[in-house]
Amino acid sequence: MAKREAVIVGVADVPLKDGKVLTPMSVLQAQALAARDALADAGIPMREVDGLLTAGLWGNPGPGLLPTVTLSEYLGLVPRFVDSTNIGGSAFEAHVAHASMAIEAGRCEVALITYGSLQRSEVSRNLAGRPSVLTMQYETPWGAPTPIGGYAMAAMRHMHEFGTTSRQLAWIKVAASHHAQHNPHALLREVVTVDDVVDSPMIADPLHRLDCCVITDGGGALVVVSPEVARRVNRPRVRVRGAGEAPKHQMGGKVDLTYSGAVWSGPAAFAEAGVTPADIKYVSIYDSFTITVLITLEDLGFCAKGQGGKFVADGNLISGVGKLPFNTDGGGLCNNHPANRGGMTKVIEAVRQLRGEAHPAVQVKGCDLALAHGTGGSLATRHASATLILERS
After folding, report:
1. Beta strand 207-208 with 218-225: parallel, antiparallel or unpaired?
2. Mean pLDDT across 265-278
3. Exposed e or buried b for every residue in 240-254, given b needs 16+ CB within 10 A?
4. How far, in Å, CA of 222 to CA of 211, rounded?
5. Cα–Cα distance, 95 to 84 (Å, whole number)
6. With pLDDT > 90 as the criterion, what percentage of the chain qualifies?
7. DSSP symbols for 349-384
8. Interhelix angle for 67-75 vs 27-42, to 10°?
9. What's the burial of 123, exposed, middle or buried (CB within 10 Å: 0-12/13-18/19+)?
10. Which helix (H) or strand (E) holds 118?
11. Distance between CA atoms of 89 and 342, rounded to whole angstroms?
């Protein structure tokens, strides 16, 4: 029997006021707005949604343990399939994969994936001082600066092992800024140089302020449907060709800070899709920090381990200039980064690239195959990785 491949037919994000906060509303309202707009983009009414996936509700009212139940009630849905897998910034890539499997198994026909966060506007009340990982038995007592401290250690180790430099890392921020200048919703739209990055204040050696992501509110939604529904709605279609996910932790003491869980999730996604990194025209890579992007690109196979610094340098990630355009909305480094869960926007921008709907200044010519990757957790301690291979149908 031929595989019943799932198709993404709708995407939407919630535009932010001044690029950083939502107008006064609850996090449920933010998700509802994103859901409404994604379903409108797909041409599908809310009543047809029979699958619902979300990764927690950050901010007021913050119901915590029952996110899909709470959201189902708020949207007036009784779905046949629900999933509240919460693996941080990689959750939404995983949700697309889980929705695809549910559709293939006949568990649902129209899966709605949503996310919303009020992280920036409520930081002084809801999120300040909240530990990001409850199992940080070493980090918490000794006061490691989470999360940047772990990423700084990963960056320092990569530099020690492979000779990677701060100027090479800076090129990642430079590329993101070149793209963000064309995004009217991006928080940081000013183009920066390598010197701007390395001359910005040191936050945790060797990471400078401009090596770090922004902090914003945000939200988004995706609509994943069966091929039968996709044919009926006659909207631009993006096929889910392959997916992979994996955790990486401290491996019982066998700690190596120079690689991520992408070493497992990436090959699994490529194998299922039947393609190679050389076939990919565009990548959306989770960019909590510049080092996250560099290590992820190595682990996904776009360059050899230790060669990431050379690979990202000299504008190689800039659309229209380099050979591997990345994060053409500005990514978490310049556009938005809601509650450490930038994976949603990574899928949205990959879909827009494949549909030819990115800003003309950054649209990748002939973009027919794209990769979206999320990282959730801390690169140096424990995290999850999830990879998607998407194709224009």
Report:
1. unpaired
2. 98
3. bbbbbbbebeeeeee
4. 29
5. 8
6. 73
7. HHHHHHTT-S-TTTPPTT--EEEEEEEEE-TTS-EE
8. 60
9. middle
10. none
11. 5
